[in-house]
Specification:
Blueprint lengths: L1 E2 L6 E2 L15 E2 L2 H5 L6 E5 L6 E5 L25 H47 L3 E2 L2 E2 L46 E4 L7 E8 L4 E8 L4 E8 L4 E3 L5 E5 L3 E9 L5 E9 L1
Parallel strand pairs: 8-10
Antiparallel strand pairs: 1-2, 1-3, 4-5, 6-7, 9-15, 10-14, 11-13, 11-15, 12-14
């Protein structure tokens, strides 16, 4: 066992050389003092890391003899691990090297492109000056300028331009036929004892005529147009119609859809 001569702290760890409290070199205690144990007292040792003291009670006389192995030894402070700092330094160094290599590569690429452009420019200048180079070998001693190619224009022969033939204007449309004069409304009557009648007449271009028949209410009246070259129809469309009459006058209106005077005929039946 060792003892600190300054603070009188005792240490059971024989491997310690200096006091954990004030750093004073430790001294060996005598053999008689090491084995002397006072019952009913406590042994004071320094806690881990030098933080305060720990009182250890001495074993009771009624119990088994006190063993030195039961004394709590002072734990030595373990050094802090520096693996994380080392790894961080390695990563920073690797990143820095990558950045440096990237800058060097970009600079080399830029220099190579400039060299390529300069070589291409020199080649173009040599071609523009007109030096004669045959098969990649330059004639030593003398340089002859190759003649610049001269462009020959083909002789232009006069081309006959087609002359536009005058187009005669279309012939004027034929004059409309002479318009007819007729009443706008014509009344129809069935002969005595007959159920049908007919009517014929003319229609001017885009003109219309009305036929009037006196009938009783509820009779069936049917009419058909014949002639007119397909130009005449009833108002509303169609060349035939059928209606149920009202009491009094009933009207049938015909329309000419052509631009000429047409002649038509209508047959009417009333039942």
């Amino acid at each position: 066992m060792k003892n600190c001569p300054a603070c009188k702290t005792q240490y059971s760890d024989d491997t310690l050389q200096f006091c954990l409290q004030d750093g004073t070199p430790l001294e060996w205690m005598g053999q008689a003092e090491t084995q002397t144990v006072v019952l009913g007292e406590t042994e004071t040792v320094v806690g881990r890391g030098g933080q305060g003291r720990v009182n250890i009670p001495v074993a009771d006389p009624n119990q088994s003899a006190w063993q030195p192995s039961q004394v709590t030894h002072v734990a030595t402070a373990m050094p802090e691990k520096k693996g994380s700092n080392t790894m961080l330094a390695v990563l920073i160094t690797a990143v820095g090297m990558l950045i440096l290599f990237g800058i060097i590569g970009l600079a080399a690429l830029f220099f190579w492109k400039n060299a390529q452009r300069a070589s291409v420019g020199n080649t173009n200048d040599a071609n523009l000056t007109g030096w004669n180079v045959n098969g990649g070998n330059v004639n030593s001693g003398t340089y002859s300028k190759s003649p610049m190619p001269t462009s020959t224009r083909p002789s232009s022969t006069p081309v006959a331009t087609p002359t536009a033939t005058p187009v005669s204007p279309p012939p004027p449309p034929p004059p409309p036929s002479e318009l007819k004069s007729y009443p706008a409304t014509a009344r129809l009557k069935c002969p005595r004892g007959a159920y049908s009648t007919s009517f014929g007449g003319d229609l001017n271009p885009s003109g219309s005529r009305s036929l009037v028949l006196a009938c009783r209410s509820g009779q069936s009246l049917s009419a058909n147009i014949s002639g007119g070259g397909g130009c005449v129809s009833f108002r509303g469309g169609g060349t035939s119609t059928r209606i149920y009459t009202n009491s009094g006058d009933n009207y049938l209106t015909l329309v000419n859809n052509c631009s000429t005077v047409v002649h038509f005929s209508v047959s009417v039946t009333i039942i």
